[in-house]
Design brief:
single chain, two-stranded antiparallel ribbon, 5 strands, disordered N terminus, 178 residues, 71% helix, mainly alpha, 11% strand
Length: 178
């Protein structure tokens, strides 16, 4: 949005607008109070050139002051709305980042569980020749916090590596490597 002014000097309208957006309410009030006499004088000049009488000048200044106050109020309201929207956007972004981090952490946990179970299955096969580790035994030897639902979900997530097996004699459920 870089453009050139008519006199050839460069200015950046985007930077000017960005600076105007960052003005605080105190700065708006301060500039308004400081510039009010100058603005009133400018309106007097305009109304003098229009050859309006004293009562007309009062009405004209009253209307100009009302428009000016309404403009300042609207600017402050818009600024406040933008601040609230920016805070909401930042909160949503932080929540999204936290959710993504929690998702990554859950993935790492599931990956670690898979690796621990595969190591246990390898060790079980080498030491006993058994290829199935039953859920109770996995909880006993690997991690007591692994529920049946968690182990079933590992089978679903890693279906190319792990399989759910059931012993025919008593129906015990376990896992096996594919």
């Amino acid at each position: 949005m870089n453009t050139k002014a008519n006199d050839g000097s460069p200015f950046d309208l985007a930077k000017i607008l960005n600076a105007a957006r960052q003005i605080t309410a105190f700065e708006v009030v301060l500039v308004s109070v400081i510039s009010l006499p100058w603005l009133a004088g400018a309106w007097f000049v305009v109304l003098d050139r229009l050859e309006i009488g004293l009562d007309g000048k009062r009405w004209g200044l009253g209307i100009a002051a009302a428009v000016y106050v309404i403009g300042v109020i609207l600017a402050l309201v818009e600024r406040h709305r933008r601040i609230i929207a920016e805070e909401a956007r930042k909160e949503a972004e932080e929540a999204k980042e936290k959710a993504e981090e929690a998702k990554k952490e859950e993935f790492r946990r599931r990956e670690a569980a898979k690796n621990q179970i595969l190591a246990y299955l390898d060790n079980l096969e080498k030491t006993t020749g058994h290829k199935i580790a039953f859920n109770e035994r996995i909880r006993e030897k690997v991690d007591p916090s692994y529920s049946d639902e968690f182990l079933d979900s590992l089978v679903k997530d890693f279906s190319t590596i792990l399989a759910k097996r059931k012993r025919k004699s008593d129906g015990k459920v376990g896992l096996a490597r594919l």
